[in-house]
Amino acid sequence: MGKQVKFKVGIIGCGLIGSKRAKFLEPYGKLVACADKNIKTLRKFYPNKKIKRFINWQKLLKLEEIDIVIIATPHFELAKILIEAYNKKKHILVEKPAAKNFTEVKKIVKKIKNNKIKIRVGYNHRYHPSVLRAKKIIKNGMIGKLMYIRARYGHGGRIGYEKEWRAKKSLSGGGELLDQGSHLIDLSRMFLGEFVKILGTVNTFFWKMKVDDNAFLILSTNKKRIAFLHASWTEWKNMFSFEIFGTKGKIDINGKGGSYGVENIILYKMKKKMGKPNEKKWVYKNKDISWVYEMKEFYKDIMYNRKPSINLMDAYQTLKIIDKIYRQ
After folding, report:
1. How far is Cα 27 from Cα 52, in angstroms, rounded to an integer?
2. 25 Cβ neighbours under 8 A, 6+ residues apart
3. What is the CATH number of the domain that holds 38?
4. Strand stretches in 259-304, DSSP E
5. Is 230 within the bounds of a domain?
6. 295 and 26 in contact (C-beta within 8 Å)?
7. Could you read off the pLDDT of 214-235 as tens digits, one per residue?
């Protein structure tokens, strides 16, 4: 990546995602501080490393030495921390969906004027090897013109899931549509473009909570490309399936590592006489390296003063779709 740069990083939110971010900062980033309201979580975070620890995230933002702030808190805190970090002139990686709802992200977009401060939204699924491979296949014209996407993403929760912060609308802003559904929407936007017709419904079938545990969407672009999406907290067996259909073939992405199964992608290339297509498969058995790729891209955004490829306007468009579904 050219010249060696060492960015000093502060992480706000020391849970599962914050911990993953901390593991993949090298070689261009160094963790110098972290903040979390839960003192037990704070003490367990990044063990055996001498870093500054704060219960109050505002104190972390006052550290002049910090170049980058990663925000990995529950949804209801994302927007206010983002604005404060921006005011302190820190580069920001904010976890998806970047705000609790569409109203909050609209306010953020209006306030952000300084293009020198880089703000990237953490939709790491864009950087899974299978997704990167799919982009190359499509760019090379191997499946022809894109027609539609069919995708499913889900898990079955766990005992006590209805008591966690994601189940409380005041903290999360919404249920499964906002959680895993936002990843499906973001990926579909990346491949097909902006959606102009939004149809969908949400329901709470199983979990005793006031947010949705299932979301069903049909999204259409002005070129009549369709995304047919289902996100579920009642999938029981964790799964990720993302199929992209073109006029000359199909891309089938399955799994994303861990409990979701080995990540793989199959290219089905249609023959001239049709019939059974030619197949080519790629399997990615290594640990999820999407976090590594995404962080490297963010460092490049800062080093080369470029606009992040997944930014606040992407979060704006995704939350706009989610807002329309919830209003329906």
Report:
1. 20
2. 9, 31, 295
3. 3.40.50.720
4. 263-269, 278-284
5. yes
6. no
7. 999 999 999 999 999 999 999 9
